[in-house]
Design a protein that fits this description.
Strand content: 5-15%
Distance between the termini: 66 Å
Structural class: alpha+beta
Shape: flat
Helix content: 40-55%
Number of strands: 12
Number of domains: 4
Strand order of the largest sheet: 6-7-12-11
Number of helices: 21
Largest sheet: 4 strands, mixed
Oligomer: single chain
Length: about 550
């Protein structure tokens, strides 16, 4: 059978199947249409050849798979242009190639040792030996005395001379940048400035870790990492300034050393802190189970706008708040009995974390809002996510560009399927799949919980009752042990951030509570982690 026969079978039915093939492998219908067009073009091009094939349809799908493979490869190659690795692992060599091999080795060693000098000493060496300035001229340039210049030159020369004498041993010393991972949480408004954004490279993380152990200056860090001081000094400035110039992961002390500027627990400390909460999990789950049964009707009486209110969704909406009331009670006891003399940290955004110990707990709670959308003056959407629930979105989502959430707003009082455009039907299908909508006959209704903005103050009022008398004895026992640990491991200058140790210690509780309630049949998790669970919306008319 000749390849020209391919043209005869390209009809609406085949096009629909090819589009389905493409849609399942791309991000949206527009991208699927482009890929489908490429496949059709490849088939037409193949049909113009004189060669023969054994069977038409296997040939068509082989062409389709080949075109998609090319598409996927091009997409990967595009992504690989933006290298995300650690540039520090490829620190440039400092020596230039010289004709004389012995002189090259000596000269490169001298340059290397100059690069390991701190900025003050490095500058006078360069100005004197390379720029040819006199000590008087250097003193004027640096705004220091000529005696200070001579002293720095003397000490710098001495250091270089000593290091060059043992240059072979130094040259063989590796740069110790083994992979290090921190789990760092943030709280507050990250748009103010998130210091984590400038600490993504291994070089940065090693400097943070060294300063965590004890305050260090640039020279000490350079020696430990076997990295030229000039690189360390630049990185210290970045880590101290952070993203906004006001809040960094490090702070500079008066004596020129750098210390940690946020709570960071090592593996032993995080295990010790979390063990205190893990011991209380059976008590927490027992109290929560009784509380849920006692207050079910009260939860369901909240004035939701939904056509139908799902009790399971109400529990998922409240689970973050319910599981955190115990740690809030512990924090209250700590503040009133153990840290009453410590002023609370007031900052728009703060971070705290621990060294990765192979365990990741808890989740997140993100919210986004918009004005004058779909007939409402104010729209706010919240989204919690944990091990059992995948996030629908994160902070920064523009609701005006999210047609699926807009359909959820339009379908609060019901939306006729027949009234939707073809584009809306496509988005509606995806909104049903992710849990925003459900179908009832020929109508679509909003599945995620909807309420009036004016009722927000009461949304979690029932769950907050757990702080009043339900955990008093357990909270007092835990607070006594945790307070001693906090005083022992947190530096005095970070003590205003003591509450973050409590938050880190509490991380196992949320997942443990969820799993316990699922095992009891009280909570039902969404299939594959995607559904209406953990997502809700409030609006103002």
């Amino acid at each position: 059978m000749k390849k020209q026969e391919v043209l005869k079978i390209i009809d609406g039915n085949l096009l629909e199947k090819l589009f389905g093939f493409c849609y399942a492998r791309t991000n949206d219908s527009y991208e699927a249409q482009n890929l489908c067009s490429d496949i059709i073009f490849a088939l037409v091009k193949a049909a113009r050849t004189e060669s023969e094939i054994e069977n038409l349809y296997p040939f068509v799908w082989q062409v389709a798979r080949n075109v998609y493979a090319d598409y996927a490869r091009q997409r990967r190659q595009h992504a690989e242009h933006f290298y995300q690795g650690d540039a520090e692992e490829l620190l440039p060599l400092l020596a230039d190639q010289q004709e004389d091999e012995n002189q090259d080795e000596l000269l490169s060693s001298v340059y290397r040792q100059i690069s390991f000098l701190t900025k003050a000493y490095r500058e006078v060496m360069i100005l004197f030996y390379l720029d040819g300035l006199s000590t008087a001229e250097i003193a004027k340039t640096q705004n220091i005395s000529e005696t200070a210049v001579r002293q720095r030159l003397f000490l710098a020369r001495q250091k270089v001379r000593n290091e060059v004498e043992c240059m072979n041993e130094i040259a063989k010393k590796p740069v110790p940048l083994q992979k290090k991972k921190f789990i760092i949480w943030g709280t507050g408004d990250p748009h103010w400035g998130d210091p984590r954004q400038v600490c993504t490279r291994q070089f940065s993380k090693h400097i943070v870790w060294l300063c965590h152990q004890k305050p260090q200056n640039a020279a000490e860090i350079a020696e430990k990492l076997n990295v030229p001081t000039v690189y360390v000094e630049e990185e210290l400035e970045i880590l101290t300034a952070g993203e906004n110039g006001q809040y960094g992961l490090l702070r500079k002390l008066d004596h020129g050393k750098y210390a940690l500027n946020f709570i960071l627990l090592n593996q032993r400390e995080i295990e010790e802190a979390q063990a205190l909460y893990i011991q209380q999990i059976p008590n927490i789950c027992r109290i929560l189970t009784d509380f849920i049964a006692e207050h079910k009707e009260e939860y369901l009486s909240f004035p939701y706008w939904n056509h139908r209110v799902d009790w399971n969704l109400v529990l998922w909406q409240q689970i973050f708040t319910m599981s955190s009331t115990f740690s809030q009670k512990v924090e209250q006891v700590l503040r009133e009995q153990y840290f009453v003399d410590v002023e609370k940290m007031d900052r728009p955004f703060s971070v705290f974390g621990y060294v990765d110990n192979g365990k990741e707990y808890g989740g997140g709670w993100d919210g986004v809002h918009a004005e004058n959308l779909c007939g409402y003056s104010h729209v706010h959407v919240d989204n919690i996510y944990i091990h059992r629930i995948q996030p629908h979105f994160h902070c920064g989502l523009n609701l005006a560009n999210d047609p699926q959430l807009q359909l959820a707003i339009r379908a609060i009082h019901g939306l006729e399927i027949g009234s939707l455009s073809d584009a809306d039907k496509e988005h509606a299908a995806k909104a049903v799949e992710c849990g925003y909508l459900y179908r009832e006959g020929e109508m679509l209704y909003t599945k995620i919980l909807i309420s009036d903005t004016k009722d927000n103050d009461q949304l979690f009022a029932i769950s907050q009752k757990l702080q009043n008398g339900y955990f008093q004895k357990e909270a007092e026992m835990l607070a006594e042990k945790l307070s001693g640990m906090i005083r022992r491991i947190v530096p005095a200058y970070l003590l205003p951030e003591w509450s973050f140790v409590n938050r880190l210690a509490n991380l196992p509780v949320l997942d443990a509570v969820v799993e316990d309630l699922i095992a009891r049949g009280i909570l039902v998790p969404p299939e594959d982690g995607i559904g209406a669970e953990g997502c809700w919306m409030n609006l103002s008319k």
